[in-house]
Write a structure and sequence with these properties.
The complex is a heterodimer of chains A (461) and B (1085). In chain A, 71% of the residues lie in helices and 0% in strands. Chain A contains 17 helices and no strands. Chain A has helices at residues 20-32, 37-63, 78-102, 112-132, 137-143, 161-194, 198-208, 215-248, 260-286, 295-326, 329-340, 344-356, 364-367, 370-393, 411-434, 440-445, 448-460. The longest helix of chain A has 34 residues, at 161-194. Chain A is globular and about 80 Å long. Chain B starts with 12 loop residues before the first helix and ends in a 15-residue tail after the last helix. Chain B has 1085 residues and is α/β, with parallel strands linked by helices. Chain B is 30% helix and 17% strand. In chain B, the strands form twelve sheets. A seven-stranded mixed sheet of chain B has the order 5-4-16-15-14-6-7. In chain B, strands 20-25-22-24-23-26 form a six-stranded mixed barrel. In chain B, α7 packs parallel to α20 (494-504). The chains are: A mainly alpha (461), B alpha/beta (1085). The interface between A and B is large, with 52 and 55 residues.
Chain lengths: 461, 1085
């Protein structure tokens, strides 16, 4: 990989005087050691949450959706909120691995693996909800795919945004998994080469697909990586655009707005980067990767949070303005109702977390303060969950006043929300333990030593 | 196969239908002719032989023939799956409306109004609509009980006979029904004893009205009220749409008179009441006074009227003398001009004005006097030509019966179809007196409260299994025929029982009949000879059965003419009118009969329990209804648990705010708080599927042992159950729970003055505006905006649409129940309704307009609008909801996966999701679940299902389909007749059919000549949310309110002004009392 000249002037991407060999040692270490107390305690907590999650789903699927808070007025509830939330989380990973790659942002190398893993796991969490929120998931899994059949005109409905979702999310999941896995092959080979236990050797060998690191392998690898990046780039924009269509295509006041696609994409990246910060701050500590995921990396991410957060905040204000400007009393009512209706508290949680919190990142000190940024990133996560909540509960007060209702989450709603975090954390912690958390190959490519070597070899020429 | 069944197989359609082609070949032809050599050549012969051999060869390849034969023991003259309709008479109450019973495979499934019937006239109330669920109720008594043990009818009769032979004093208590067969059967039976007397009683009986009729006219006859002739109606708390005799006819006539296409000006209904009654919601003007002052206001109006009319009878003058408008108005806290203007208005419409009174003697008397003064007798009221005979008047009254029971001389008390242990006010002391009878025999459908106290209980048939007759109005004869043989062996109709026991006692039975069928025929012979109908009895009988009864042409012609005026009887009226009422200082509690559950007899019927009250929209229980002023005084809001002290009893009951109720009046619905051990009341441990549909609100203090659905206010109410009582009400500080289909806990916020008016959903307009501009109040026609979709193009020659006239609709909710029965819609129970998961495909939205204290109420039937650009269709990912060629928005239940996006995107929120297996909650999916002793107690419920409509399971969205099964039926029928189109009026949706006021019209909207097309094109028609461009196909006609010019306004303003003055006065008297504590009842000296 060619390193641009400009990098010479920048701060090094790997600090602490780590050598290229240290990169291998440090990144492989978690996979080659017995887990720490911190690991096992967080892993068992996550697994407990996941177990409760499975139990809750089993119960809801056996008895029926009457266990959760949705009703005739608000036919969608926390499940859709969770779905949109998790899909949104995934976006940061794809942005880092695809768009930043295409823009030659070399600082991405140390965080892209973890961010992509986050994408894959977030999408897997998200994927559960749209299927299981249906009344008859056992049929939903069959009927939403346009397989050939004898039922004549009874096929899928390509006019439905939910059908677009099926394609958007499944494509996204497929591309994310493949991209993530393919990028991991050289590192899996490193782990294979270092493995001594035959079982470890076998599995790492199986998944590294006979990678030998030859020049031909590298040429293929880099071409494929480039192509995947090109495929994944539009997905960053399209997936959440289509998810936003679930709302925007409806005719409900407060849902039917053209601002949704850009506002959802900005929101997704915003929440995704916040989640990356939330995850990597403890992970770099837990797995001793502070010299690879440096404070500079985190600062850059905080800058993106500031940018996207401001975009989202701008959208909130624009929505209000358009509601006034439209002259439609229904639209105006929907927004006044959001701010001052029965769910005013959710609205103001959303506003303060998403509009105010990121503004703190104007200050360099806060951008570079680990505890502050971690706290702020949590606020953003909460705020972005509530953003979707606010949108969904708009349902409770639609056109006809006699059909207005309430939406109150039940115990099972809460268990399933908490449980989906359990699923996510279980997967993420497993990933940290058995797979290379940093992209060793790429980090080495932009290691100060490598860059020096390249520079020297250039000087010789 | 035995020969018996051979006829069920058939070889060709001709053979099956019996239309064989004429024989072409005689089997026994001349043998000589047959042996004639054929002309066929050899090649021909070989050809045929070859073909024959090949055919045989092929035949050998075929699989052996397997014959299946359907329905071995098919009953004669029945076609499986075909609908058979029987005309009959409803016996749900004494009104005796004509019904048509739809049966499929010999199961009665749906009751519909019989159009030609003179009572009901094609309408049917919610009670009758739900009757099939009573019939198939799994908790019906199936065997007689003697001292709590199940026994057979035979041994029951043997036991009873021993008692009968020894009995001297026998009393027979029964619910009223204008059946000569029943009356005479009871009479004959009671004649067997030295002292036999009968009592006819029902909780909601017009006793007071009958008494006043006797006072005024000397006869105990209720007039037939012809509201279509009334331009002015003064309603003195009568709630006539709900409580009157022949209430469906009242509703029908009232609505007909409000039809703006038929009459130049709508009538004006002025209601005087403290509560907001069902009828009050339909009023043009409401005068709010304490419930106890309603009759006083009536007398005051009468005295004003008498002053204008002059020349009034001395007896009337004496009665109304103490009631001057100024005095009464001062007591009631209203502007006296309201009463004076009202009187002027009534007098201006003399002969076309009528007053209707609450079921109390004083209110009835005030109404009766007004009717005489206003000349309603003979014009609006018909007390001579064809008056009502619905409520029988013979025998003892209930107080005399109680006295007899108390004296201990009664040997046997029979209770037939009545439930006095529950339905009679505690103060009458019936239950205690009943214990003093030597033997109590109850003939009932359920083991109700009275049956629980009886030693012998004989299960009766449901009226759909019975023969009966009715003469609801003079010379109007109805015939009720059974539509199914009794479901259980050991049950017997009470008429059959009476006749059997009379026979066994060796006494003559009427018409010498051995059973009800013979008795009915005997009576019908009398009808034939009475009306001098020519022809054989068989022909007359069959014709009457076919038509559900008989009315002679002469009677029909006479009914519509003005009636004779009944003279004033020489009675003293003043003592009944009494002195003006001094209202209680504090709150008064007014019990009232609610529209849905009425007197509570159908408490075990899920459809009735889950029918939202037209006014409060509450289901599964009652509440303390507070007006806005009352709630402010109590510092209470909806869902607060209130503590009520009334008549020496105390209880806790949840509060509910009702706009438009007088500040000093709280209302509590009667008909709740039943203690019988029935599934929906407080759980029947005998049923394997214990349902949680009901939420027992429990009534602390009243009867802490048994949790009940709602609170039984009859325990404290007076002899006249609706008479208001002084009550002390306070907050308990705890939260209560109630279940309602409209947003209950925010009712005041939601229905703030003006709030939501801009939505222009339920349009109401005042007559003065409307008479100038027929489009007044309707939403602007934004629908003319540019659309890229264009008009829909349907392949079918017909497209279905509906028009709903909100001016005709009074919100009675019969359509809601009709829709449930027709479409197998489940009920969901207290908790689920509370969570906003009710399943009513068709609901009635209630809107309040104007001020919280003086609102106007509009009822709007809301159902699927079958939009041309249906927003639900485009968002379904699996095409479970699509558009049909005739413009229906159809649901494919099998395809539905339940994403519920369609329901989100439906602006009318008329799609309903099965959040759980709703039918299972009622035990309907575990039909064959067995108890330990091998019974399947849930089984009869399955018979209530309409086989033409899918029963939906969990996770499926469902909605109104314009009764697509009926549409398709009519289409097939028309096709068979060779018609291209279904003629107008052939299809009647279930809601339309049962609508007592004909507010719903359904039909082809492509054809401009149909009734519905005319309504849709009428200039007052508008569509709800038309600006959304979704092209709904239900047109609404706005509610036009004929409010008096400025009068209602001045009444409201005056009321407010006087209240303010009063408050300022009392504040000045007490000193600077902070406003928060002011008016709290327990702080008053």
């Amino acid at each position: 990989m060619n390193a641009p000249e400009s990098l010479r002037q920048r701060r090094p991407l790997v600090t602490g005087g780590k050598t290229v060999h240290d990169v291998t040692l440090d990144v492989c270490a978690p996979a080659e050691r017995w887990g720490s107390m911190a690991f096992w305690s967080s892993f068992s907590t996550s697994q407990t949450a996941m177990f409760l999650y499975l139990c809750a789903w089993l119960l809801v699927q056996t008895i029926g959706l009457k266990l959760v808070g949705i009703n005739n007025a608000s036919d969608w509830g926390s499940f859709i909120v969770n779905f949109v939330f998790w899909v949104g989380i995934g976006h940061a990973g794809t942005l880092i691995s695809a768009i930043l790659f295409l823009f030659r942002q070399n600082w991405r190398t140390s965080i892209n693996r973890a961010a992509e893993a986050m994408t894959v796991f977030a999408v897997s969490c998200a994927g559960v909800f749209p299927m299981l929120h249906t009344g008859r998931p056992w049929l939903a899994i069959l009927f939403v795919f346009p397989y050939p059949n004898f039922r004549g005109p009874l096929w899928t409905n390509f006019r439905s945004p939910l059908e677009w979702d099926v394609f958007a999310v499944s494509t996204y999941a497929t591309v994310s998994v493949l991209f993530w896995y393919m990028g991991m092959i050289p590192d899996l080979a490193t782990l294979r080469d270092r493995a001594r236990h035959p079982i470890r050797k076998f599995f790492y060998g199986l998944f590294s697909m006979g990678w030998r690191g030859s020049m031909r392998h590298w040429i293929h690898y880099e071409t494929a990586y480039m192509i995947f990046a090109a495929i994944a780039t539009p997905l960053v924009l399209s997936v959440h655009t289509i998810v936003s269509f679930d709302f925007a295509v409806s005719i409900l006041p407060g849902w039917h707005t053209t601002i949704y696609p850009p506002y959802f994409v900005a929101g997704a990246i915003f929440s995704g980067f916040a989640m990356v910060v939330t995850l990597l701050v403890p992970a770099r500590k837990l797995f001793h990767l502070e010299d690879y995921i440096t404070i500079d990396h985190l600062e850059v991410m905080n800058k993106i949070i500031l940018l996207t957060g401001s975009l989202v905040g701008f959208s909130y204000i624009t929505e209000f303005f358009i509601a006034v400007y439209s002259g439609s009393p229904f639209e105006q009512f929907a927004f006044v109702n959001r701010a001052f209706g029965p769910f005013w508290w959710a609205y103001w949680i959303m506003m303060s977390c998403n509009l105010i919190t990121p503004q703190f990142f104007w200050f360099r000190y806060i951008r570079r303060s680990i505890p502050l940024m971690w706290t702020l990133s949590l606020f953003v996560n909460v705020g972005m969950w509530f953003e979707r909540y606010v949108i969904v509960v708009t349902l409770t007060r639609s056109f006809l006043m006699p059909s207005w209702g309430a939406y109150i989450m039940t115990f099972w709603d809460v268990v399933i929300l908490a449980g989906s975090f359990g699923q996510f954390m279980t997967l993420f912690l497993l990933f940290c333990r058995v797979l290379p958390v940093c992209n060793m190959a790429e980090v080495k490519a932009f290691h100060p030593d490598t860059l020096r070597q390249i520079r020297e070899s250039h000087d010789h020429d | 196969m035995s020969d018996k069944h051979a006829s069920h197989e058939w070889k060709s359609p001709e053979k099956r239908s019996g239309k064989l082609p004429p024989a072409t070949l005689n089997e026994f032809q001349d043998p000589a002719k047959l042996e004639e050599p054929s002309d066929a050549a050899r090649r021909e012969f070989l050809k045929i032989m070859g073909a024959g051999a090949a055919a045989v060869g092929f035949a050998g390849c075929a699989r052996p023939v397997e014959r299946i034969v359907p329905e071995v023991n098919r009953p004669e003259q029945s076609t499986p799956g075909a609908k058979v309709y029987y005309a009959s008479a409803c016996q749900g109450c004494a009104d005796a409306c004509g019904v048509v019973v739809k049966t499929i495979d010999s199961r009665p499934l749906k009751l519909e109004g019989r159009k030609a019937s003179l009572v009901g006239r094609g309408g049917l109330c919610s009670r009758a609509q739900a009757a099939t669920y009573d019939l198939y109720d799994p908790e019906r008594l199936q065997q007689p009980l003697v001292a709590g043990d199940r026994t057979s009818l035979k041994s029951f009769d043997e036991t009873l006979l021993v008692e009968l032979r020894q009995a001297r004093t026998v009393r027979w208590l029964r619910a009223p029904y204008p059946s000569e067969v029943k009356r005479r059967s009871v009479e004959a039976f009671l004649a067997s004893f030295p002292d036999g007397k009968e009592t006819v009683w029902e909780p909601i009986a017009p006793d007071a009205a009958l008494k006043v009729q006797e006072l005024l006219h000397g006869t105990k006859v209720l007039p037939r009220v012809r509201l279509d002739r009334a331009d002015r109606i003064l309603d003195l708390g009568s709630d006539f749409l709900n409580l009157s005799w022949s209430r469906l006819d009242m509703a029908r006539d009232f609505s007909h008179r409000r039809d703006l296409d038929s009459f130049p000006e709508p009538p004006r209904l002025t209601t005087v009441e403290g509560l907001l009654s069902h009828t009050g919601t339909n009023a043009d003007d409401r005068i709010q006074v304490r419930q106890s002052l309603v009759a006083d206001v009536g007398f005051a109006v009468a005295s004003e009227v008498a002053g204008i009319v002059g020349d009034t009878d001395q007896r009337i003058r004496a009665a109304i003398a103490p009631y001057s408008a100024d005095k009464v108005a001062a007591t009631a806290g209203i502007d006296p001009r309201v009463i004076k203007d009202l009187a002027k208005d009534l007098v201006a419409h003399k002969g076309k004005a009528v007053a209707l009174g609450a079921p109390t003697v004083r209110a009835q008397l005030a109404a009766g006097i007004l009717n005489i003064l206003l000349g309603a007798e003979g014009t609006v009221l018909d007390g001579v030509v064809s008056p009502s005979l619905q409520f029988e008047t013979g025998g003892q009254d209930i107080d005399a019966l109680v006295a007899d029971l108390e004296s201990g001389k009664v040997d046997i008390l029979f209770v037939d179809g009545a439930n006095p242990a529950y339905g009679l006010a505690e103060s009458v002391g019936f239950s205690k007196a009943m214990a003093k009878a030597k033997l109590v025999v109850v003939l009932a459908l359920h083991k109700d409260e009275t049956a629980e106290l009886a030693r012998m209980v004989q299960p009766t048939t449901h009226w759909l299994e019975d023969w009966n007759v009715a003469q609801p109005q003079k010379d109007v004869f109805q015939l009720a025929q059974p539509t199914i043989s009794p479901l259980y062996k050991e049950v017997r109709s009470s008429t059959d029982s009476l006749l059997a026991w009379t026979k066994v006692l060796g006494k003559p039975t009427p018409w010498n009949a051995a059973n009800a069928h013979e008795a009915v025929q005997g009576y019908w012979k009398e009808v034939q000879s009475g009306a001098a109908v020519a022809g054989t009895f068989e022909a007359f009988w069959e014709d009457s059965l076919r038509h559900g009864g008989f009315v002679s042409r002469a009677v029909l012609a006479a009914r519509d003419k003005a009636s004779a005026v009944r003279p004033l009887a020489g009675k003293d009226l003043a003592s009944f009118a009494g002195a003006p009422t001094v209202p209680p200082k504090g709150m008064e509690l007014a019990p009232y009969w609610p529209a849905g559950i009425r007197e509570g007899a159908q408490g075990n019927n899920p459809l009735i329990q889950e029918l939202p009250d037209p006014v409060t929209k509450q289901v599964w229980g009652n509440a303390v209804l507070m007006g806005p002023g009352g709630a402010a005084a109590l510092g209470a809001k909806s869902e607060d648990l209130l503590h009520v002290k009334v008549g020496g009893e105390e209880f806790d009951l949840v509060g509910l705010l009702v706009p438009g109720q007088h500040k000093d009046v709280v209302g509590v619905a009667l008909g709740y708080g039943r203690t019988a051990k029935l599934r929906l009341l407080n759980g029947n441990p005998e049923l394997p599927v214990w349902t949680n549909l009901a939420y027992a609100t429990g009534s602390k203090g009243m009867d802490s042992k048994i949790p009940t659905v709602g609170v039984d206010i009859l325990r404290v109410s007076r002899r006249e159950s609706v008479a208001p009582m002084e009550a002390e009400i306070s907050k308990t500080g705890r939260d209560g729970r109630l279940s309602s289909t409209q947003y209950y806990n925010d009712i005041a916020n939601q229905e703030k003055p003006g709030e939501g008016e801009w939505r222009q959903v339920a349009v109401q307009v005042n007559w003065d505006e409307y008479s100038k501009d027929r489009k007044a109040g309707s939403p602007e026609e934004e629908a003319k905006l540019f659309t890229i979709w264009g008009d829909p193009k349907y392949k079918s020659p017909q497209q279905w649409g509906m028009a709903i006239d909100m001016n005709r609709c009074n919100g009675c909710s019969a359509c809601v129940v009709g829709c449930h029965v027709e479409n197998n819609i489940p009920v969901v129970g207290f908790e689920e309704v509370r969570h906003g998961r009710d399943m009513h495909w068709l609901r009635i939205d209630r809107y309040f307009h104007g001020e919280l204290e003086t609102p106007q109420v509009t009822h709007q039937v809301m159902l699927c609008q079958q939009c041309d650009n249906a927003p639900c269709e485009s968002v379904c990912p699996v095409l479970a909801t699509t558009h049909s060629d005739d413009g229906l928005n159809q649901m494919t239940y099998n395809r539905c996966i339940g994403t519920r996006y369609c329901a989100n995107n439906c602006p009318y929120k008329v799609r309903h999701f099965n959040w759980t297996n709703n039918w299972k909650a009622q035990g309907l999916t575990d039909l064959y679940e067995k108890t330990a002793d091998g019974r399947t107690p849930n089984a009869p419920l399955a018979m209530a299902f309409n086989p033409e409509v899918t029963v939906r399971g969990r996770g499926v969205m469902e909605k109104c389909t314009f009764c697509v099964q009926r549409v398709q039926d009519a289409r097939y029928d028309s096709k068979e007749l060779g018609l291209e189109k279904v003629p107008d009026g052939e299809i009647q949706t279930a809601c339309q059919q049962s609508c007592p006021t004909q507010a719903i019209v359904f039909g082809d909207i492509k054809d401009p000549t149909t009734k519905v097309s005319k309504l849709i094109r009428s200039e007052r028609g508008y569509k709800v949310l038309e600006w959304l461009q979704i092209k709904p196909n239900v047109t609404y006609l706005p509610r036009v309110r004929h409010t008096a010019d400025r009068k209602a306004v001045s009444a409201a303003v005056a009321l407010k002004r006087m209240e303010a003055a009063h408050e300022a006065e009392s504040a000045a008297a007490v000193g600077n009392v902070p406003s928060e504590t002011h008016g709290a009842p327990n702080e008053r000296p």
